[in-house]
Amino acid sequence: EAGVVQSPRYKIIEKKQPVAFWCNPISGHNTLYWYRQNLGQGPELLIRYENEEAVDDSQLPKDRFSAERLKGVDSTLKIQPAELGDSAVYLCASSLDRRTADTQYFGPGTRLTVL
Amino acid sequence: DAKTTQPPSMDCAEGRAANLPCNHSTISGNEYVYWYRQIHSQGPQYIIHGLKNNETNEMASLIITEDRKSSTLILPHATLRDTAVYYCIVRVSVQGGKLIFGQGTELSVKP
Fold first, then answer.
1. Between residues B90 and B10, which one has the greater pLDDT?
2. Does the beta-carbon distance from B97 to A4 stay under 8 Å?
3. Are strands A53-56 and A110-114 parallel, antiparallel or unpaired?
4. ∠ CA(B32), CA(B42), CA(B13), 5° rounding?
5. Cβ A98–B45 below 8 Å, yes or no?
């Protein structure tokens, strides 16, 4: 069974440029998460989807960050415009159903560098 | 969710058991203890979780004290590939939702 797929793995952009990250969760997983991990820190949740619905986006900086999960499968996280402080690893995770043990499976992440 | 405390780093000799402690003195009765690990340049990986009883799977064993205020993750025969940051997380499982990661313990397995 394929795991969580993310692309690109690495992205280098200049500040004020837009950037997008893509995530394909494990087949059949209804819940999808985006986390951000700063250097030397643990991951922090940005947004959680239950199918197509964003049910927890309280930590998403909505002035520059946006996310979508069309058809309840793939998801895209966008930053526009990027700032120097956005340099981090962006992790996508999925779980089968929040009503079960809710083990989250993580992708490899996208390492973003903003110059 | 309850807060956890872990040592920042530990060393272990290859082939020996690695015992990683975690304190969670404010854990509530309906909160589970989860362990994840993160190998360098990879996403976090689920290891094991438990509520009250000790648990064992193909990766590790989880020992939870009777008062549930602390737990220990045991890797019975550590290998070099077990070198990673190990995160202990407590949360209410059935509600789903986010994992709150602390600083974790950086385990170095040495030959």
1. B10
2. no
3. unpaired
4. 75
5. no
